[in-house]
Design a protein that fits this description.
Elements (H helix, E strand, L loop, with lengths): L5 E6 L6 H10 L5 E7 L10 H12 L9 E6 L3 H8 L3 E6 L2 H17 L4 E6 L9 H9 L10 H10 L10
Parallel strand pairs: 1-2, 1-4, 2-3, 4-5
């Protein structure tokens, strides 16, 4: 019996975007089981509390058809490599949008390898339709009354509208 390959895709997912969705969909072709690891990360002052980010991510990924044996969404508040070990992961999945992401991700991969050489970092390039999407830009565009419906799911558009005190469709959707 071969050991299944477990991957961890970490991030704050504040909120989950179509770019995240694309990376998850593609990562499922690389690993047998994927754990979406949502960092509590209070240092980044997330717009949405952890429980809400978990719920949004679970809802957005439900249509992938991957059961709990293939896809799990969990929060974490410890060192990523400790979390990866707890999950039995041998792979960290990271998405790269642009060259500007590479330097930071390269440094993180190096540090993670020093912490645990048995866990490999795999980079997936963002598809051409999602290279420019970031949660930070989605929040800023929404805050300023812009339309983010091509960057996030309708459910996330609705949650963003609520968070910024707008009605979905009122310059948000």
């Amino acid at each position: 019996m071969t050991k299944s390959r477990v991957g961890v895709y970490p991030g704050t997912f504040d909120p989950i975007t179509l770019g995240h969705y694309d990376i998850v969909r593609r990562a499922l072709t690389v690993v047998d089981r994927l754990v979406i690891a949502i960092a509590s990360n209070d240092g980044k002052s997330p717009l949405f509390p952890l429980e809400e980010r978990l719920a949004m991510t679970r809802a957005d990924l439900a249509d992938l058809g991957a059961g709990p044996d293939r896809l799990e969404v969990r929060g974490f508040d410890n060192l990523l490599m400790h979390f990866a070990n707890e999950m039995g992961a041998s792979v960290i999945v990271r998405g790269l949008r642009a060259v500007s992401d590479f330097e930071y991700e390269f440094q993180m991969a190096g540090m993670n390898t020093r912490l645990d050489a048995n866990v490999e970092t795999v980079f997936l390039m963002a598809s051409e339709h999602h290279q420019f999407i970031s949660s930070r830009f989605v929040k800023e565009i929404t805050r300023l009354g812009g339309d983010v419906s091509s960057f996030v799911s309708p459910a996330v558009v609705h949650r963003l509208a609520e968070r910024f005190g707008r009605v979905a469709g009122d310059g948000v959707a």
